[in-house]
Amino acid sequence: MKSRQTYSWVGRPLLDPKLHHQTYREMSVKVEGCSTELHIHVGQFVLVEGNDDENPYVAKLVELFEDGSEPRSRKRARVQWFIRFCEVPVCKQHLLGRKPAAQEIFWYDYPACDSNINAETIIGPVQVVALAPDEVIPTDLKNEKTLFVKLSWNEKKFSPLSPELFAQLEKLQEGSPRCQKSVEAKTKNIESPSCTTAERAVKRVESRHSSSKSRPAPTHPVTPRARKRLELSSSPRTPNTRISRQTSWASPDSPRRTKRKAALSEITSPSKRSQPDGLQTPSPARKAPEKTGEIQRRSCAKDDKKVSAERHMTLRPRVPALKTTVLSEERRLTPTRGGRRSSMVPSVILIPENIRKREAEEPEAQDEAVSSRHHTSRKSSLLTLNQIKQQLRFLGKSESDSEDEEFLPAAEIPDSSSEEEEDSTSPLPRTPSGASRNLRSSTKLSLQTPSKTPKKTPKPRTPHHATPRIRSRNLAAQEPASVLEEARLRLHVSAVPESLPCREQEFQDIYNFVESKLLDQTGGCMYISGVPGTGKTATVHEVIRGLQQAAQANDVPPFQYIEVNGMKLTEPHQVYVQILQKLTGQKATAIHAAELLAKRFRTQGSSQETTVLLVDELDLLWTQKQDVMYNLFDWPTHKEARLVVLTIANTMDLPERIMMNRVSSRLGLTRMSFQPYTHSQLQQILGSRLKHLRAFEDDAIQFVARKVAALSGDARRCLDICRRATDICEFSCQKPGSPGLVTVAHLLEAVDEMFSSSYITAIKNSSVLEQSFLRAILAEFRRSGLEEATFQQWLVMFLLE
Amino acid sequence: MHFQRRRLHSKSWCLFVGFQFVEMSSRKLKSNNLKHSECLSQVQRILRERFCHQSLHSNLFGVQVQYKHLIELLKRTAIYGESNSVLIIGPRGSGKTMLINHALKELMEVEEVSENVLQVHLNGLLQINDNIALKEITRQLNLENVVGDKVFGSFAENLSFLLEALKKGDRTSSCPVIFILDEFDLFAHHKNQTLLYNLFDISQSAQTPVAVVGLTCRLDILELLEKRVKSRFSHRQIHLMNSFGFPQYLKIFKEQLSLPAEFPDKLFAEKWNENVQCLSEDRSVREVLQKHFNVSKNLRSLHMLLMLALNRVTSSHPFMTAADLMEANQLCSMDSKANIVHGLSVLEICLIIAMKHLNDIYEEEPFNFQMVYNEFQKFVQRKAHSVYNFEKPVVMKAFEHLQQLELIRPMERTSVNAQREYQLMKLLLDNTQIMNALQKYPNCPTDVRQWATSSLSWL
Asked: Which of A158, A371, A398, B297 has its CA 20 to 30 A from that of B187?
């Protein structure tokens, strides 16, 4: 890509002393080979490379700066995002309540979204027209490149643009043609935003990968920029890869409320605020002159536009005739702009009232919106004022809600130069391409299932958020009435006991293993073996439950728990699909899921919290190449992966028997073997299940425990026998309602029923012919001394008898 | 493959035979016994229905204990939401399907259960792999309606979809599902036994309450299950063993033939039932039944016998006699191969006799056409008076005809370049079969018969 497009700054850098940044007003993009140059100004609307070639991301350029803190200085840009309707999560699209217009976009009012991008991902300028809520979106436009913004979207609801925001956007519309024109005058040929080169496509695939991979969970920790900057001042580290926690975003509150909370907390803790303030020199006293200066500048800017009819427009040009002349003039200069001009007419009319009204009400809001375009130095003063205002509002609860609504969205816009907003918008390390809008909902990402083809499917074939379930019963299930029924319920294998008796040692071992990995933030493997029914899976579940409680109490860092079962897969490679889906909610093919997972677990710091993966029935993941097992055990060895893999299988020597050396070596030596239960342990298990329930004779429990321990040591068997015995007891009891205790006799019957071979009874009950044929077979075997004979030979024997 | 064909065969065979003689009975209508014949057609309708369909009105014979066990189990799933799994094991025709159908019918009559329980019927012969089975389960649970326009995707998607659906439920709020797996042993041959593992796993965990009922005739079914699948199975087995003796068999015979009390013509019904009573006391009838009982305790074979006997009942011959039953028994125990031999030409019979001699000489070693031809030549030259000495191609043709009739079978598959004369063959007839067939063979030349019996003495 760089071979084709070169990005360079235009104009003198404005040094921002507090940031060690050099900010610029303008950037020029030169496309090699066609000698054209594209100038992009701060404040312009731009297209940014995204996941989708057809629909690149739309954003407003807020700031262009050179990130001097990096070894090789990089061109960065700060943007305010817009969101297309197709980028809104499918499950939330209905919130709009109408069909979106083809070129409608939404102000992306979600501060958690990363706004700091690589400037070289900017494709080119685009036209965005703000519409008042009561305006209709023009549909008869020839120019498809013009986009319309009418509503804002904050991941929860669509709301109309706040008036100050609207005004700000309107001003931009006026301002941009001026810049644009000068650029266009210089450049003969404008690179259209949709023009894509092969390299760009490649790059986009990469960025798509990164964006999907680095999709954070909703509870993502976010770096406050303040801290980042402090770090910067002390050491020249990259600002992009720092991650820490900002728990306010973890709460499921609405952004508005969190915002308010954050503001409040910042006011009340001046020490926290003081540091960035100290860096950002301006004093509140400077505010007033700044403001007036700003207004002057604005009028100047308007005066500059004398070339066109822009000025008339500010004077409410309702005269169509005038308008058309303007149009023609505009068209000649910039053919692509024509459509937009005409569409601007209705929108412009509304501005003055808006501005006036807003200015009267909240001058600082207007100020802020305007000043943010050029001056970052005034940020903190504005912010403090804002915060004081907010604080007052917060205290004075009598304020109307509508006022609130109006104010807050504006304050939340990431580029409204509010310090803390910007801080919260860099949640993730930048990937090389940089243009990832990270904090989108999972559904959206899963929609854009990262297939290699640039076309994205509009809808997943199987909506995985659909929740199939068995219909619920009409009548409530009866509760157990008698002691035996209660006992039967407790003896069912599915009944989850409060504690797992007899597995304390194993529990502790596994718990310690996982806990230590969590605390060290490393990864590791553990292999657990044991015959069926010895409580392997139950113990691991218990460990996870314990750890989750500990995580809630902040004793251990939070972690993500994923469970896969080899038996519940159709094919070993499906394990990737399952893991990916449980991890991120994405759907992908097995091969692709493997790639994504490998990237996720192998790249630096891509996962913030440790993942605990339980792989049940490991032996079924065996493949010829053993690549599945290899990957499962290889991921945890990467330091960044923070993956703890617990594997369960039946055979003790599985690693030696079926695994290649390189696989078993990665599995490590953390082994644990669950011994079959002994009779006393089984007795204890039964005892704990039947606590305070007098349904079994003590002898009976001991009998069954010894019997099962001698046969298999399978706790499931033990419970099943007891359950069957309660049945038999109930049957045998003559008077219903008052059955006696389950005795040894009942259990004996149950054991016989389950374990005795049925062959003898079957032979006893077969017909005379069948029996004599069996005798003939025996006789022939005795005669020949062989274990095999033909039917003819048997028949001879049969007839001889 | 052949085994599976037999399974289907045994159930559909009764139907096929049952309607052969229907026309005969209706043709001989006379005006004076019009009412009489109507009665008879009624009788035939009722009894045929009883023999062919597994009507739920018939009583259960000697399986009351098993029935009670099963119904209790199903009730507990339906009412208390307790998950269970059970296998019903018994030989073919022992009433496994009847048992479960009876139990389900009774269960559905309980009002609180009928609208609460979902049933899923699967058959190992129809759902030959897990993917098909999963689709069928989803269809029978009506889950596709829940999801709307869901299109069935891959096997993996289906599995996770269904598991997710079943996982969502819990003991008290979800509708219990009763899974009935017919020919359970065939499900155990599916890859990894995924379906069984998951069904049993659900029945052992706190998910949607399910009852898994497996029907199978394999006694060693538990050995077919993988150990982790086996561990999850509750080990409840209900054995149906046809454990009745001959007196009960006789009682069943009477019960199956007698007309119900609701029969329109009371007089006729009374007479009919009296006749049945007489039959059951008749010595020759008892002999026939004893013979039948000794061969097979299968109730289906008894139905078959009675069906054949019933078909002989006409308006001129209104009541079943001992002779009818004997005839039917003969029909039942008829050897189809011997019948084929009856239809062979003299040359073909001669060839079969030659093969028989070869078998005797070389002790069941395979033979080829040339050996048979030589043997036949020897016979024609030395002993035969009436048999014409056929040319070799003609004999070859007769030999091939025998192969077509599957009386002889090539040892290996026929290859193109192998000479047909030297292809090794095996005779599929037994010596006794050949001799019996020869006894009855119409117009068998005496020298041929002598040759057959002479064995090695003629050499």
From this structure: B297
